[in-house]
Amino acid sequence: MNQSFYIGAVGAQQQLRRLNVHSDNIANLNTFGFKADRSYFTALMYQDHRGIDEELPMGVGARLLKTSTDFSQGPVVDNGRSLDYMIDGQGFFALVDLATGQVTYTRNGAFSMSELERATGEMDEAGQPVMEKVFCLGDGTGRFVLSDTGGLIQVDDPKEKLPIGIYDYPNYDGMTQLDDTRYLPVDKNGNLWYGTGTLRQGLLEGSNADLAEEYSKVIESQRAYGMALKMVITSDEIESTINNLRT
Q1: Using one digit for the tens of pLDDT, what is the confidence trace for 184-241?
Q2: Domain tally for the chain?
Q3: According to the 3-state scheme, what is the secondary structure of the chain?
Q4: Do residues 42 and 131 both lie within one domain?
């Protein structure tokens, strides 16, 4: 089979992957705290290499090397809610799942009051702990926001500025994206420290995805995908012609 066939096939498949990246960015244009992904391509091996036991064949075309998250700050959005918070500068909000103990990080500060049942430290007549219901700051999905001292934040007056913690890592590269706005650090992100950003109440950080840029990337991917398929079709026609000549 002609090498151009494989170059076109790999190129089309990789452009579909790139299209998925930028389509997801467009879908999250209105998601608070969303960070857009950027796609990076690299050429495959363009010559044979000698391996330990056999020769490694050269590659075909290019592939999507990686996707990297752009953590630059998004625009300011004012929804008029006192429980909305944004970080002006570097850092993340920390969210804890009390059921699993997992702590994740986000730039989405659209918080709400979440009910939590906890022990008061007293015992009833039957020797059972007395429980009370309080409202703590949460993200509306069962997770709670950590304070600047690492504890939960009880909300008595929603209009009062709450002691929300701002946490940060020296390196963001490779952070695991769990959903549209939550991230889980990995070893190479370094040690956790206090963020240098400023907490602003009543505001939210919008998505940093730019519609014009994302549409241009989508058009580029569509054009490249079409050209790659034409290469596949042309290569197939050449092979068919060669086979017909042989017969």
Answers
A1: 999 999 999 999 999 999 999 999 999 999 999 999 889 988 988 888 888 878 878 8
A2: 2
A3: CCHHHHHHHHHHHHHHHHHHHHHHHHHCCCCCCCCCEEEEEEECCCCCEECCCCEECCCCCEEEEEEEECCCCCCEECCCCCCEEEEECCCEEEEECCCCCCEEEECCCECEEEEEEEEEEEECCCCCEEEEEEEEEECCCCCEEEECCCCECECCCCCCCCCECCEECCCCCCCEECCCCEEECCHHHCCCEECCCEEEECCEECCCCCHHHHHHHHHHHHHHHHHHHHHHHHHHHHHHHHHHHHC
A4: no
pLDDT tens track for 41-71: 776 655 555 545 555 555 566 777 778 899 9
Specify the pTM.
0.81
Range of the domain at 233: 3-72+209-246
Same domain, 183 and 226: no
Structure-token pair, residue 54 = 């056999």
The separation between the first and the last C-alpha atoms of the chain, rounded to the nearest angstrom, is 17
Residue linked to tokens 């068919």: 240
HEC states along 1-53? Answer: CCHHHHHHHHHHHHHHHHHHHHHHHHHCCCCCCCCCEEEEEEECCCCCEECCC
Q: Which residues of 88-109 are buried (b: 16+ CB within 10 A; e: fewer)?
A: eeebbbbbbeeeeeebbbbbbb
Are 104 and 198 in a shared domain? yes
* Same domain as 132, residue 30: no
